[in-house]
Amino acid sequence: MPTTYLLPCDCGKKLPVEAPQAGQTVRCSCGQSMEVPTIRGLAKLQQAKQQEVTKAGSRWGPRQGLLLLGAVITLTAASVSVALQVKANADYEKFTPTGYEFTEEKAERIRQAYEKMSPAQTWREWGDLRSRVGRNSTPTEKKIAEVILYRDEQVAMYQRWRYVTYGIVALGVMLMAATLLFTTSPRAAAKSSKRPPPNRKRSP
Q1: Helices (H) and strands (E) in the chain, counts
Q2: Does some domain include residue 132?
Q3: Does 54 share its domain with 91?
Q4: 17, 77, 80, 184: which has the fewest C-beta neighbours closer than 10 Å?
């Protein structure tokens, strides 16, 4: 592993540099540009310890922190959404009285039965339904109606919270996308700071 030297800056910080950078210009985080000494000059500088080099070259930074935050928000909201859906399904089955489960098979049977009715039978069925709407319900029927109403309210509440989790998932995804689009990785920033400035020829 090449030896890393610490190049002091006027601001008090020390930039890690290596022998291949001799003669190049590097930029400190304070904004000051400094020229890396020659090989002989580097030998006079303080050598960096392995821990300091690892810390200086770490890839972790605000960019990675924002990406992690966005991922945590997205995964947490998605997990809550799944849990709400499972809870809604469980409550729907729990609070649906026996014989009142409305499935596609039942809907198809009812549809076929009404299609086979004559106009007169359909009219009598409609009149029977109208008469049953206004009659007094039995205690059992009232209890069943209350259970079904409670079930529907619970399922609707879970669905509303799921809409909230959808929005949170969208925010997490947008945070990660914005971080990737508008921030620079520490490695790219380090390469940019180590890149020597272009040679400009002065006009005579």
Answers
A1: 7, 5
A2: no
A3: no
A4: 184
Domain count, the chain: 2
Per-residue pLDDT at 16: 87
Check pLDDT > 90 for residue 59: no
75 shares its domain with 170: yes
117: left (phi over 0), alpha (psi -120 to 50) or beta: beta
Whether residue 192 is predicted with pLDDT greater than 70 in this model: the reply is no
Same-domain pairing of 88 and 160: yes
Structure tokens at 168: 């949170």
Query: Do residue 50 and residue 12 come from a single domain?
Result: yes
For β-strands 25-27 and 33-35, DSSP reports them as antiparallel
Residue 162 falls inside a structural domain? yes
Give me the pLDDT at residue 102, please: 57
Q: What share of the chain is helix, strand, coil (3-state, %, to 5)?
A: 65, 10, 25
Rounded Cα–Cα distance for residues 150 and 95 (Å): 8
State CA 101 to chain mean position distance: 36
User: Is this model's pTM higher than 0.70 or not?
Assistant: no
Instruction: Say what the pLDDT of residue 204 is.
Output: 47
Q: Which two tokens stand for residue 72?
A: 């945590």
What residues make up the domain containing 163?
62-101+137-182
Domain assignment present for residue 54? The answer is yes
Tokens representing residue 71 in the block: 């991922």
